């Protein structure tokens, strides 16, 4: 008899209930999803649930396959909620399941009334009820295998724990990653209403689905994992669209179109597939799946031939310029804006930039202005710690204005921040390195370029952030004498004024060194990794005390104000004393 893998499409509530007791095997890697991946999942769920937009919730949202290994000695023939409860090993899907359960736990714990439906329902998914009516026991639905199991259970799964400060002294990297994701979910979800949180919980439980596949031994289960994740060349979306477009073109045009398509595919390389997601967004169909969205753009354009000539070709060429930085083609100021944009993680800004460059030859001044404003919004929204969904919606508003062709200058409403957003940026800058180390490094590079009066053509990956006042100075160090108060050190150590950029090798040597020794280390540099202007900025200081840190912070915040037209210094004497932002505020035009 041929072997058949038991398979079923299950909602998250069906998977996290009934007979499925999930364990992560010892051979699995620890939790490794970072904040960006978790934020992206949350943004996608909020959009699909119709919470972050005015659209209706999607009827079903697919979260991929989950591969389980049956319990030793068991042989599941058919997946059914009536099966006897037993343990399954999670072979593929650990990262998604842990992240989803963390999200559900935060939704449960933000509801202050434990009798509300959201609290009861989520609790029943996170905690399995076992035994008979007269002898009932409980266990957490998912058991991790490594050290972070205790952290996951005590700080996430345990009722009420996910919104409390973490109860762990020195977390490992996987534990710290898990807690960072938990805390980010808490921050974002706390801004929603109780009704919106309940809606999200129900959407995850009832409308989010996975395909569960069960193997009865490790070899078969691992084989499924490999096939699902590694083997075969995936059919790319651009292959489907190419077939769609060419099938509706005349023979003469199709021959030219094939050559042009292949040329753009080769030029864009790995960027060819993402290009179609950007194209869909430009024309306002971001809510649709990529193929469906582009097909709608084709219909809106009047068919395959006008789409190819008037939409695909000019926008693909524009995107190629962006990816190449416009070297030897675009004016220097546009190249500068693109250089800064291309450094940023995530390309939410790309659709607006593609559109802004589309007609650069006809109106280079407008393209230059738009690219500078796109770079400004891209950076300010990151300093605001806005999630990717909010950034995408912000750029969608700008895209509408660009497409309309209406006049736009610095006073246009689409380019303004609210007073509360300005306060939010000032508040986040107090400890921005802790909030977003990647963007903090890019911010320091940008500020260094402003200090130098020119852009340093360096690889950001070669530099790391160094805290001049060390994060953990030795008890006998001179730093403890200069900063005896632990509270004062904690406040100043993450200050923007206390940060410089040096290589990892220099960072390893500098760590807890004295100020005089640190200056010697900073000054060395090399031809490949020269000392940057942002670091040179501190070298002349004879001492490094509170006054120097605060004065430098004021200077750097002043540079942010000047570069991106934002009044941070006006927020109650700067970012050190600004209060946390309110939830809403009227629009405030920027100077």
Summarize the structure in words:
There is one protein chain. The protein has a 6-stranded mixed β-sheet. It has a two-stranded antiparallel ribbon with strand order 5-6. It is an alpha/beta fold and 591 residues long. Helix 3 crosses helix 6, helix 3 runs antiparallel to helix 7 and helix 10 packs parallel to helix 13. It contains 26 helices and 10 strands. 53% of the residues lie in helices and 9% in strands. The radius of gyration is 27 Å and the shape is globular. The C terminus is likely disordered.
Largest sheet: 6 strands, mixed
Structural class: alpha/beta
Number of helices: 26
Strand order of the largest sheet: 1-8-3-4-2-7
Low-confidence stretches: 582-591
Q: pLDDT average, as an integer?
A: 87
C-alpha termini separation: 76 Å
Percent of residues in helices comes to: 40-55%
Strand fraction band? Answer: 5-15%
Which word captures the global form? globular
What is the number of beta strands?
10
Which quaternary structure do these chains form? single chain
- Alpha-carbon Rg, integer: 27 Å
List the keywords.
two-stranded antiparallel sheet; 26 helices; 591 residues; 53% helix; disordered C terminus
Short account of what is shown:
With about 600 residues, the protein is an alpha/beta fold. It has helices at about 10-15, 35-50, 95-110, 115-125, 150-155, 175-190, 195-205, 220-230, 235-245, 250-270, 270-280, 290-300, 305-325, 330-345, 350-355, 365-385, 390-405, 420-430, 430-435, 435-450, 480, 485-495, 505-510, 515-525, 535-540, 545-565; strands at about 5-10, 20-25, 60-70, 85-90, 125-130, 135-140, 140-145, 210-215, 465, 500.
């Amino acid at each position: 008899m041929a072997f058949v893998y038991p398979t079923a499409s299950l909602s998250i509530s069906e998977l996290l209930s009934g007979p499925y007791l999930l364990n992560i095997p010892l051979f699995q890697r620890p939790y490794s999803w970072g904040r960006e991946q978790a934020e992206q999942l949350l943004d996608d769920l909020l959009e699909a649930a119709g919470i972050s937009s005015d659209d209706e919730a999607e009827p079903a949202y697919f979260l991929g396959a989950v591969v389980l290994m049956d319990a030793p000695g068991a042989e599941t023939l058919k997946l059914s909620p009536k099966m006897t409860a037993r343990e399954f090993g999670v072979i593929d899907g650990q990262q998604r399941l842990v992240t989803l359960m963390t999200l559900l736990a935060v939704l449960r714990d933000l509801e202050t009334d434990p009798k509300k439906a959201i609290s009861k329902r989520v609790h029943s998914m996170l905690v399995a009820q076992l035994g008979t009516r007269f002898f009932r026991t409980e266990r957490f639905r998912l058991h991790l295998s490594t050290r972070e199991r205790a952290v996951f259970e005590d700080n996430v799964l345990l009722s009420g724990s996910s919104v409390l400060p973490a109860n762990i002294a020195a977390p490992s990297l996987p534990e710290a990653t898990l807690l960072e994701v938990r805390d980010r979910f808490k921050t974002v979800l706390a801004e929603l209403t109780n009704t919106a949180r309940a809606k999200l919980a129900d959407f995850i439980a009832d409308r989010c689905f996975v395909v569960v596949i069960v193997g009865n031994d490790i070899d078969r289960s691992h084989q499924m994992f490999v096939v699902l994740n590694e083997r075969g060349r995936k059919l790319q979306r651009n292959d489907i669209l190419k077939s769609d477009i060419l099938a509706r073109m005349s023979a003469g045009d199709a021959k030219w179109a094939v050559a042009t398509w292949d040329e753009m595919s080769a030029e864009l390389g790995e960027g060819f597939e993402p290009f179609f997601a950007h194209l869909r967004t430009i024309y306002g169909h971001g809510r649709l799946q990529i193929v469906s969205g582009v097909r709608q753009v084709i219909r809106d354009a009047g068919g395959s031939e006008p789409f190819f000539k008037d939409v695909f070709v000019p926008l693909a060429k524009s995107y190629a310029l962006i990816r190449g930085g416009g070297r030897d083609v675009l004016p220097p100021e546009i190249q500068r804006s693109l250089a800064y944009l291309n450094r940023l993680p995530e390309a939410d800004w790309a659709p607006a930039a593609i559109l802004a460059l589309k007609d650069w030859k006809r109106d280079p001044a407008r393209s230059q202005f738009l690219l500078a404003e796109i770079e400004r919004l891209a950076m300010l929204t990151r300093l605001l710690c806005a999630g990717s969904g909010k950034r995408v919606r912000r750029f969608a508003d700008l895209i509408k204005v660009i497409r309309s062709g209406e006049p736009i200058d610095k006073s246009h409403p689409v380019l303004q921040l609210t007073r509360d957003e300005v306060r939010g940026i000032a508040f986040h800058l107090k400890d921005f390195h802790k909030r977003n180390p990647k963007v903090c490094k890019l911010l320091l590079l940008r500020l260094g370029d402003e200090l130098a009066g020119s852009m340093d053509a360096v690889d950001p990956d070669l530099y790391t952030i160094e805290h001049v006042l060390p994060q953990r100075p030795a008890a006998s160090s001179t730093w403890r004498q200069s900063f005896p108060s632990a509270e004062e050190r904690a406040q100043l150590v993450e200050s923007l004024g206390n940060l410089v950029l040096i290589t990892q090798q220099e960072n390893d040597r500098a760590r807890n060194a004295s100020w005089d020794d640190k200056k010697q280390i900073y000054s060395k540099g090399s031809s490949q990794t020269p000392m940057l202007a942002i670091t040179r900025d501190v070298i002349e200081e004879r001492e490094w005390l509170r006054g120097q840190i605060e004065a430098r912070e004021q200077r750097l915040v002043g540079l942010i104000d000047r570069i991106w037209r934002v009044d941070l210094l006006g927020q109650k004497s700067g970012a050190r004393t600004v209060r946390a932002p309110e939830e809403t505020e009227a629009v405030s035009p920027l100077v």
